[in-house]
Specification:
With about 140 residues, this protein is of the alpha+beta class. The protein has helices spanning about 10-15, 60-80, 125-139, and strands spanning about 20-25, 30, 40-45, 85, 105-110. The protein has a 5-stranded antiparallel beta sheet. A hairpin with a 3-residue loop joins β1 and β2. It starts with 7 loop residues before the first helix and ends with a helix. The structure holds adenosine monophosphate (AMP) and zinc ion (ZN). The site of zinc ion has 6 residues, from α1.
């Protein structure tokens, strides 16, 4: 499986960096975003390292998309947001800050005014862990 030693998401896959894991299978991993826009904001990645949609294999992309749909359903059940975006960004011009392909599972609130290129603001780790438990219970 392709791995990039300095990639933060590869290091999460390897267990070298802690994360609030929600779900994993042989191909994919879902975990909480540490800078959540809203409660329940989480990420889904292929375990193998592909920087963007331009390098990823169709099978790895499909596996990540399937996991994103599964996790989105759990977020919807656990948190009942007003809506939910799946966002997958490619390259700095698209505000991709971590070059390991990922889907944002991003719950939305009515009139939250969110722009696609939101800024990163650290979340409360204890609250993120508590929300992760609620999503896991809905998986
Ligand atoms: P993007 O800016 O679209 O590439 O999204 C990358 C996301 O990864 C951002 O929302 C960050 O908050 C998130 N992120 C970065 N480092 C970590 C980490 N160690 N654990 C969880 N999420 C992270
Ligand atoms: Zn990586």
């Amino acid at each position: 499986m392709a791995r990039e030693p300095n990639c933060i998401f590869c290091r999460i896959v390897a267990g070298e960096i802690p994360s609030d894991k929600l779900y994993e299978d042989s191909e994919t991993l879902a975990f909480m975003d540490i800078n959540p826009v809203h409660d329940g904001h989480c990420l889904v990645i292929p375990k193998a390292h592909y920087p963007t949609v331009f390098e990823v294999t169709p099978d790895a992309f499909a596996a990540a998309a399937c996991t994103a749909a599964k996790v989105a359903a759990a977020v919807q059940t656990a948190l009942k947001p007003d809506g939910l975006n799946l966002i997958q960004s490619n390259g700095p011009g698209a505000a991709q800050s971590v070059p390991h392909l990922h889907f944002h599972v991003l719950p939305r609130r009515m009139r939250d005014g969110l722009l696609i290129n939101w800024g990163l603001k650290p979340g409360d780790r204890a609250r993120i862990a508590e929300i992760a438990g609620r999503i896991r219970a809905a998986l």
